[in-house]
Every structure is written in structure tokens, then in C-alpha cells.
Amino acid sequence: MSGALDRRRPPPVGSPRPIELPAFQRFDLDNGLRILVAESHKLPEVSLRLIVEAGAAGEPPERGGVGALTGRLLTEGAGERSALEMAAWLDRLGAAFSAGVGYDVATLSMHFLSDVTGGALDYLRSVVREPAFESDEVSRVRQERLDEIERNLDEPSVLADHRLIRTIYGDHRYGRPAGGERETVAKLDADAIRQFHGSRYSAAGAVLIVCGDVAGTALHDAVAERFGDWPGGTEEAASLGAPPDVEPGGPVLVDRPHSAQAEVRVGCTGLPYGGDDFFPATVANAILGGVFNSRINMNLREDKGWTYGARSSFHFRRGPGPFVISAAVESGAVSGAFREIQAEIRGLVERPPDEAELGLAKNALTLSLPRQFETPSLVTGKVATQQIYALPADYWETYVDRVDEVTRDQVVEVTRSRLEPESMTLLAVAAESDVRPALEELGEVRVESAEP
Amino acid sequence: MNASSSPRPGSAEVRFDFEERTLDNGLRVILHEDRSAPIVAVHLMYHVGSKDERAGRTGFAHLFEHLLFQGSEHVGHDEHFKLIQNAGGTLNGSTWFDRTNYYETLPSSHLDLALWLESDRMGFFAPSITQEKLDNQRAVVKNERLQSYENRPYGLAFETVLQLAYPEGHPYRHPTIGFMKDLDEATVENVHEFFDLYYGPNNAVLVLAGDIDTEDALARADRYFGEIPARPRPEPVAVPAPSLEGERRETIADRVHVPRVYLMYHAPSFNDPEFETADLLTHLLADGKSSRLHRELIYEKRIAGEVHAFIWPTESLGMFFVVATARPGVSAAALEEGVLESVAGLRGGRLDDDEVGGARNRARRALVGQLNSVGERADAFAHAAVLRGDPGYVNEAFPRYRGITRDDCASLAEGLLGSDGRMVLHVVPAE
């Protein structure tokens, strides 16, 4: 650190400390429940996630949304306690509980101070193993859910996401939001909920991930006491058929009168988590739209000034979730945005990244790893990903190497084979009067109403 | 866990060691060592926000936040993001009524990179600003305004709230994003003036939190920032207390399916000894399904779909919000009546000890959750140092919440949540 300061170039980098990922203890109970615990005594807090094979992909088609509604009803009366008594119990502990139901699994997450760990596990046991699903509560929560679906569609970005997946996937389960839609949710009753819970909430395939201010073996004992006799059932990972080949048509315009701006989406069927091409696709996405400095954002925001931000992502799931590019742009820029986005995808093949650009994308993914594991809830989230997608046990330990191995040719190849701009769906949520003439330049416009 | 192995509920403690030093040029530096992960948070907070903007120049502090990422004398136009991302770091900035902040979290081996970038834009920003950069970021900010306010359901409520709360000419009356017209009129000269006035080292606090050695990090901070000269201290803006007489109300229409009701009350500021108690009232009202508004409006009366309560941690005047969104078919008036009844329940001695104890536990858990990353801790230290003049507040907050009693809550609610000075906004579906 001696010598005069030279501000003309970035300072030299210090010697990096090696990445140390948290060490997990693993316990397998006889009924199939796996327990993974990492001790972290920095703060008196605990993050817990219980993963259950109860995601939306396993729903009967006519019961779309039953998983999400079941997740929401777990807390609304259980054992001897009413919904209000359950709420008071959790709130007195000061703990937070949420049931996140995606396409793949249901994840029950808790965050609490370590001085109430025993009470929090009692609560978890009750909601998982003895929810009441009384008809009155089911009707109430179903109505709350329907109201929420309606409110969410006031948000143009949500409306755009929903209409995009419907266009890409048609009748496939990925064509509807994981939480379901009005038509199917409205028909769900207590029997449907009980049946789904009875068949899906079991110890088989379930994983409890804990990180925080706990002792590993004591935690195991406490969990075994509460979940050791949770029936195992038969584990059957939900399987989905392959997505249909939807013929791309002209741009889809969801007419939302009086919109102040346009939400644009460009998308197609993507890839499953951890499958072939996973790492090349991850790096390609970082170059294209995954980080601030990606090509699409630099073009649409920093060059054109059309948007506050544009990004792309692969929604990796057990099946091939969508690849989506999103931006909210000024209404006058809609067709320009579509053109530029398509040009950037082609550009990744025509103008492959040089060493610096490829290196930046990889570094953004790998050097950020210590930050991505910083807090207990980040740690449990990362391990949940590894468990849900049955990734190798050393997945995170070898992640840096796997990313670093990706070559420029692989990036070009995965873009060429997986991301064809001409066959992607183009969709805008905007006022028809503002954008239709410009969209006509891109093909025959298919107009939909913003109302369901 | 059996009783013998568990700590006593309510016994959890939180404490973060730190040092505070001041460089010769007046830059305050706060150093917090936590070597558990090889990362460091660098957080630079300037004591300038939208309240310092003059009429006709709204949105400047926020426009600045954008321009300061566009390079400086030694840092190229698009280099700032590039260098941080290439190091595996994350970065952002934000603007509030009272302050603007710039921050990054990155591997600790790149601490100097962040110091170089932050010091360059503090000491060597002015020559780099061009009309082209201004035009580009002005367009980006206009799109941010469209996306975050104008095209978002209930998004314009915020501006109306400010107009209800503060009289014409009040420094808190305009939104941080600014008005389009003022953004259109911004010139490069205006940008220079604003920068010279507010972005000196003696109007800022630098926090370094994480994998550092305190003395070494201080020496590095001095190396990069020490040569930047102090500037005349800007005159603090007067923030007059608003009138608490009567009630003020407004109704606006929006592209939404159901009405939403906002109730606002002038409240203790972030500096006030009763700030935590006021915050605890928000937990009593709307944090958790057993909280008053959840239980009474969503579960029992079934007139609301969503309820929220929160307080703005402003430097001078606080604002207490209760926000409820109606179920379909419920009018704004009926919803307001229900909300007022629930709010009144906190007054007049109807709180019980268990209820307050639960709220305390939820507030303490939330606080730990907000302090578990070095970036969040740096943010907390910076806010405490800039807005309260005391970074040590970060360690006082946790025990303060623990000490709040039922009587504290009841008596504050009595004074705070009455009809005098109350503001009411209805957002209703258009047509």
C-alpha cells in the first residue's frame, strides 16, 4: 500500500481468500425424511425449509392451483387449534412462516430467533401433519385467493408473464401460473384439498434444511421426535409431458387501455435445471441479459434510454421452463425493442464474446458465490435448489469449475440451437391505440383483451 | 428441543462491534469487522436527498444517483458496473427524502476497487458529465417513473399522499423521482451546481463492513478519500412541522379492480425516542395473521384483501401509514370505517400483554433478519450515522424493542392515531 496513488487505472487485486461453503450434517430418518443441518452461530437466528413433493406439476389438470391453495390452508386450523389460534401461536413466537408452491415442489419456510426453536418446530409439525382443512376455512381462503388473482392482474408485468407462458406452452401445465387460475381455483373444495394433502404431504422424498444458531445433533433429535412417525407413503415425483411445439405467430398484443408504458416479453421454451447445456446456457444468459452489463440492457437502457431495465432469464425447472426476456419500455419504442432484442440474440452467434466479455459473465456467476451463501436463508435456499433438482452432492463445491469450463464455442452453440429469435413469442401489454401500427411492421398482430 | 438445552425465549442478543473515525477532510468512516465470509460491503451515504431540492428542480438527487454510475475522470463511461461485476460484486444506489446512498458488496480482495470507484466519483466527477449522458439517463429515469409509478396499480397514490401531508413549498412535498417537467429542464450547469453543493467528503459517511482489518481499512480509506478537499457545508433545509388540525382527505381514480384506502398520521421521526414504539404499533396492526387488521378486516369482517402498516424512518418528521385494499364489492368508505375501528382498538387500553409481547418478538426477529448480511449492516450503520448522528444506534435498537411495554404502546397510540392531523386517501377504480 505504499507509493503514490495512481488513479488512472483500477487498483491491483488483493489475494483472494478461498471460498468456504457451509458444512452440512446429514441425517436420514427411517420414514424417508432427510435432515440437512449447517450450524452458524453468528446471529441468534434460524432459517428452515421443508421441501415436500407437492408442487403444481403433480396437480390433476382440472384442479390447477390445488397445490398453492393447500399450501395456504396448512396454517388455517390444525390439530385442536382454530385458524386464529394458529396465527396467535406463530405470532407470539415472533416467527415467520410461508408456504411457497412452485411447479416442482412445495417449500415451507420459517425464520425465527433461536430462542424459540422448539416452539417453531412444534408449529411446523402441526401445520404439516395435522391441518384441519375445515370447509368454512377452505371457502374463505379460496375466496381470498380468487380476489388476489384478480388484484395481481392489475399489475401489467404479471399480466404479461401470464399471457406469455400461455402463448408458449398452450395447455401444458407450464402454460398456467403455478398458483392456478380463476376457473380451476373457483372449483376447489375441502375434499380436493384433503386429497392433495393426503397423497402429497409425506416424508417420502421430503427434505428439511436448517441453517443457523442450532446444534446439529440436538436439532436432529428434536426433529425426529416430531417427524419420526410421519408416514412415508410412496414417493412419486410428478412427471409432466413434453411441452407442445407451438407455432410462432405474429406479435401478441394484450390491449390494456390507458397504459402509460408497454410491458414487453420475448420468450420460448427453455431448459430443465442441471440438464445438458445447463452451464453453457447459464453463461450465455449472463452475456445476453442476466446481469446489468449484459448486451440487451446496455442496448435498450444505456444506449437507447427506452427502459429502466431489461433482463433475460432461464426459468430452470425439473422440466423445461421458459426462457424469457423482459422490459418495460416507453410505448413508442415497442417495435424497436423487439427488433433490438432479436438482433442481440442473433448477435451472440454473429459476434461471439471476446475473452473479456466471457470472463465478466463467468466472474459475475462465480466470484459472487460467497455473497450468495452469506445468510442462513440464502444458504438453505441454495441447498434447496441442489436437493430439488437432485444435483450432485458437490454441486456448489464444483460450480465454479463447471462455469469456468464453458467455452466461447459452447456459448455460441447453445444460443444457436436453443434460442432462435424467429421462433420466439413476442408479446406486449400496452394500449392498442399506442402500439398497434408499429407492431404491424413485425407481423400479423394477435390482439387479446387484458380482461380474463 | 427440550427445555434444558434451549435458551430462555426472549434472551437472544445481538451486538456488532464498530469503530468510528473522521478523516481530516471531514469524511466520517465507520468500520465494522466481520471476517466470517470473504466479502466486504462499501457504503457511501451523502446527506442530501429530495428535500434539499429547490422548486423547479425536483428529481435532482435521484437523477444524480443515475449520473454517478456514468463514469468519472478516471473511470470510463460504462466501467463502473463492469468492474464491480467482473469482481463478482453487486452494487446499487438509492434516493430518499433525506439522503442518497451508493453501495457495493464484493470479495474483500477487491476492497480497493470499490474505494477507487467511490472516491473517484466524489473527487473527480465534474469533468466527466456530458449532455449526452444527461439526456440518456434522463430518458431512463422517465421510464423508471412510468414503470414504478404511472403504469403501476395505485402507483400515483404516493404523490397524492405527499400533497395531502405537506403544504405547498414544504421540502417533503415532492416525490424523490421528481416531476417530468423539471427533469426536462435539467441542464449540465444545474448538475454541476448541485454536485458542488452536496457531494463533498464532509457531507458523507463511508461504512466498510465485513472482511476487513479495522486499521488497515481505515488507512486505505484515507489513501483514496483523504486528498479530496472539504467543501463549505450546505445549509440544512428547514423542515417545518405541519399543522395537526382537522383531517385532510382526497380521492383519486386509477386502473384498478378494487379500492384502496390510505390512512396517514404524522409520527415520531427516526430520531425520536418513541420511534421504536411507533414502529411496534405497525407490528401490532398488520404484521402476522393475528395482528389487529389481519384478524378483524381479513378474517372476521372480510372486507379487506390486503393490509399493511409501516412508518417512514425520516430524519425530521415521521409518517405512519395504514393501507388496506378492499375485497371486491366493498366500498372505500366501508373499508375506511373498518380500518378506523381497528386502529382505535390500539387506543383506550384494549391491548393485552401477550399481544404486545408477540409484536416485540416479531419486531426483534425482523431486525435480526435485516442485519444478517454485511450490506444490510453497512446500510444500518450509515443511516444511524447520517440521520441520527450516532452509528451506535444499530446496537441500541434491539434492546429498545425488548423494553417496550403495553402502556408505552397504548399511550403513544392515544396521542398519535386520533383524527386530528389524520390524512385519508381513497384510490378507486376509474369509471
How much helix, percentage-wise, in residues of chain A?
A: 40-55%
Could you give the count of β-strands of chain A? 12
**Mean pLDDT over the residues of chain B:** 93
Side by side, the strands of the main sheet of chain B go: 1-2-6-3-5-4
CATH class of the largest domain in chain A: Alpha Beta
Q: What are the segments of chain A in which pLDDT stays under 50 over at least 5 consecutive residues?
A: none
Major β-sheet profile of chain A: 6 strands, mixed
Short description:
The complex is a heterodimer of chains A (452) and B (431). With 452 residues, chain A is an alpha+beta fold.
Question: Could you characterize the architecture of this molecule?
Answer:
Chain A is an alpha+beta fold and 452 residues long. Helix content of chain A is 42%, strand content 17%. In chain A, strand 1 and strand 2 form a beta hairpin. The longest helix of chain A is centred in the N-terminal third of the chain and has 18 residues. Chain A is globular and about 65 Å long. Chain B has 431 residues and is an alpha+beta fold. Chain B has 2 domains: 207 residues, Cytochrome Bc1 Complex, Chain A, domain 1, CATH 3.30.830.10; 182 residues, 2-Layer Sandwich (Cytochrome Bc1 Complex, Chain A, domain 1). In chain B, the strands form 2 sheets. In chain B, strands 1-2-6-3-5-4 form a 6-stranded mixed beta sheet, sandwiched between helices. A 5-stranded mixed beta sheet of chain B has the order 7-11-8-10-9, sandwiched between helices. In chain B, helix 10 packs across helix 11. The longest helix of chain B is centred in the first third of the chain and has 20 residues. The relative contact order of chain B is 0.16. At the A-B interface, helix 2, strand 5, helix 3, helix 4 and helix 8 of A face helix 2, strand 5, helix 3, helix 4 and helix 8 of B.
